[in-house]
């Protein structure tokens, strides 16, 4: 297992809050990449009330997260949204923002947010299109 590496300053040393009660949505490509590691979708995916497919939580944390060792079992192949976190797309504001729940979020600069916002926006659009076309992974 790869060690968990925070994208920013790692201010949440005791517990990786982004892996607790996750609502990380996956694209079809994310699921296919994870499938190649030998995981079964019925184990790690759930359909959320909004119709999107999300990582399953087990005992309050992401299916792939080991709270004892603070490691992600699929870190190198993790979902695209995990790679951008804590930068998220706020649909109501129609812009990228930092998730207020992330203790490392305050270390992000506007320049860092702008640098990846187009990718985050594209990911959200991809998720939306897959859901509309019935192509989501679950």
Account of the protein in words:
A 3-stranded antiparallel β-sheet has the order 1-7-6, with no helix packed on it. Strands 2-3 form a two-stranded antiparallel ribbon. It is globular. It contains 4 helices and 9 strands. The model has no long low-confidence stretch (mean pLDDT 87). With 138 residues, it is an alpha+beta fold. It has one domain (2-132). It starts with a strand and ends in a 6-residue tail after the last helix. The chain has helices at residues 28-35, 41-44, 80-84, 110-132; strands at 2-3, 45-47, 53-55, 57-58, 61-62, 65-66, 71-72, 87-90, 95-98. A hairpin with a 4-residue loop joins β6 (65-66) and β7 (71-72). Helix content is 29%, strand content 17%.
List the topology elements:
Blueprint: E1 2-3, H1 28-35, H2 41-44, E2 45-47, E3 53-55, E4 57-58, E5 61-62, E6 65-66, E7 71-72, H3 80-84, E8 87-90, E9 95-98, H4 110-132
Antiparallel strand pairs: 1-7, 2-3, 4-5, 6-7, 8-9
């Amino acid at each position: 297992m790869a060690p968990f590496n925070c994208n920013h300053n790692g201010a949440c040393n005791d517990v990786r809050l982004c892996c607790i009660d996750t609502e990380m949505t996956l694209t079809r490509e994310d699921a296919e990449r994870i499938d190649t590691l030998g995981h079964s979708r019925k184990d790690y995916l759930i359909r959320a009330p909004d119709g999107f497919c999300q990582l399953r939580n087990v005992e309050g944390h992401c299916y792939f997260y080991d709270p004892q060792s603070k490691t992600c079992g699929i870190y190198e192949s993790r979902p695209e949204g995990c790679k951008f976190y804590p930068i998220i797309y706020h649909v109501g504001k129609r812009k990228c923002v930092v998730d207020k729940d992330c203790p490392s979020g305050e270390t992000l600069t506007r320049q860092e947010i702008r640098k990846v916002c187009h990718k985050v926006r594209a990911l959200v659009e991809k998720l939306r299109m897959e859901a509309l076309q019935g192509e989501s992974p679950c």
